[in-house]
């Protein structure tokens, strides 16, 4: 049993270092005098309960899951990406897109306004639904969304430093389709049934190639630890070493997050938003964002595996947040690319998506694995 | 390999109550049978995102459609019955209502039946104006259908671009007739008002713009690999089947039958213009779509020829002298009609009465052959009976038959490839 002070000390030992918040800011420094602004966190250092809360917030594992790259970062990424998706699609289609809410910034806070609308809408549970499951599964989605953050590091901020971080992250992300299928089952409607079946089939078609592509990079770098992997890419990013695996991983992400042209489980003219057909109000708002959250997680993995993760020039004022910023920027740019597909692709049929997943994509994945094996052998021999 | 055995799970599924309460046109016990077996019955529509104003009752085995039973009639407005209580001239806005974007083709068929009954010769200029506007409406309708097909395939850009281009067709109609859609522009004996040269210039520019932008649309949607994958070899009908099920219009031509009323029984100015009948051989969804995409180009060429011919003609004389019937021609001069119907509308058309008999016309509307039959008793100023056979109703059977063996996701793709428009079919 830890005492209060031991707990506080434990949190402080492993706290996030952000100069402008947690460190002293030196105003000027001469031979005799030092003038500095005390860190914001020190305001609470002596107050009994608050100091523990503040220490907990800046405790690295907690900070990773709830702030960066966790929940807050997901929300920060989510709002502009939904706006960007609508705006860029509108620009291509000779329209304005969201504009009326906050005209000066081009309707940037439109997703917030939509969320507010969802809040005040009635949540309808239809008679046929399995009521407890129907209402609880959308909330449960936060589990598979936030658990992978435990093992995905962002620079020095991480919850668990494990040699199995990449496989563990992929395994935890794979739980999301389970929740979606369960949602479709709990809805107990024909369209939700067809939609969740489609989700299950899509899961079939991308999961194996996604794992093969990730594993081929693990083989190439000789480590499954994300920190090691990023260190390996300090000179050449993985996308140049094994472009085929990157391509396969990229297309698998498109399939996994039901972006176009693989927006099959939620196809609205066919199965009317598929598994989520019966949801209304704020719960619909929650299930609608699942795909975006998954996109964020997989883009994090893509930037770590192929784009050098948090490698980038160090920004001193941000301290520990500097690598997080680089990782976040790479992830956000990737997300922008993924949502752009909406403008110029239609939707494949389910059987065509399965065929692509198991023939073309599988072939590429295996060739990519071969490339990795070859390069890995050279790496072990020490020529690289 | 031994044959796979199917296991049925005792899932407690009850057939939905609406199967009795909605009086669906299905054989009794369809849903019970399907639920007990390995099929499910999907009710697509009428408030479904991809059904239009109709209900499709789809029997699905796995992912394959076994049978589709249509339940049309949700937008039946009784055009034929309403027409019996209106004057002949009042029926023109009415008959346009089934296919709002295709208004000129629809009123053209009806008006030509009246002209046939009264033996009216339409002035040359009115003929060209009619032809030009009919083709504008054809372009508008084809763009509308292409947009619907695109959004059914999830391609939102392919939806927005044709709808924006359709605006140009609406704009042309507005400048010529005063209404964006349902122009009620064609009247017995000619057209309602003349088209001046600046409007003709606008039409020429608009069609040139459409031609240029249609190429962009082809690049982003028509030749898109996803579109080709979704439409190629889907719901193909052979030439024989197409004739058997009574398919009409571009969908019949897509099956390799070279039949176009404009070419076979030319009306208005079609026999004086040069254009091709677009035919494809495959009969699948993609060729059904391609035929219409290419027809847009043909229509543009027809419009440009019409604009050129109209510019060379003198202004005026757009309502036939046969119906104006007042001015006597002087010696050596041709009988000249009116320049506008303004001020003479009620005198000309208020007491319009057809001689007794039955008059039938065939018109090539955008979605296919359109038939009007007017039965007149010779005394009344309203038709005794008006029969309208719209193309949508004709190809509904073929549409349903072609869906057999398709995937569930193909339902909307085939729907869009036929450009099925329930208000048109239901009348």
Give a description of the structure:
The complex is a heterodimer of chains A (384) and B (427). With 384 residues, chain A is an all-alpha fold. Chain A is built from 20 helices and 2 strands. In chain A, helix 8 packs antiparallel against helix 9 and helix 11 (190-221) runs parallel beside helix 20 (360-381). Chain A is globular. The mean pLDDT of chain A is 85. Chain B is mostly helical. Helix content of chain B is 47%, strand content 11%. Chain B contains 18 helices and 8 strands. In chain B, the strands form 3 sheets. A 3-stranded antiparallel beta sheet of chain B has the order 1-2-3. In chain B, strands 6-7-8 form a 3-stranded antiparallel beta sheet. Chain B has a two-stranded antiparallel ribbon with strand order 4-5. The A-B interface holds A 89, 92-95, 190-191, 193-194, 260-261, 263-264, 267-270, 272, 342-352 and B 40, 42-43, 48-50, 63, 150-161, 164, 220-221, 224, 226-227, 229-230, 407-412.
List the helices and strands and how they pair.
The complex is a heterodimer of chains A (384) and B (427).
Chain A: H1 4-13, H2 19-22, E1 25-29, E2 34-37, H3 48-57, H4 60-66, H5 71-92, H6 110-120, H7 131-140, H8 142-151, H9 165-173, H10 175-187, H11 190-221, H12 226-232, H13 238-241, H14 243-256, H15 268-271, H16 281-288, H17 290-306, H18 321-340, H19 350-358, H20 360-381
Antiparallel strand pairs in A: 1-2
Helix pairs in contact in A: 1-3, 4-8, 5-18, 6-16, 7-10, 8-9, 9-17, 10-11, 11-14, 11-19, 11-20, 14-17, 14-20, 17-18, 19-20
Chain B: H1 18-21, H2 30-36, E1 39-44, E2 55-61, E3 64-71, H3 79-83, H4 91-96, H5 103-118, H6 124-152, H7 157-177, E4 186-187, E5 190-191, H8 197-222, H9 225-231, H10 239-244, H11 249-253, H12 261-264, H13 285-312, H14 321-324, H15 345-349, E6 357-365, E7 368-376, E8 385-389, H16 391-402, H17 410-418, H18 422-426
Antiparallel strand pairs in B: 1-2, 2-3, 4-5, 6-7, 7-8
Helix pairs in contact in B: 5-6, 6-7, 6-13, 6-17, 7-8, 8-13, 13-17
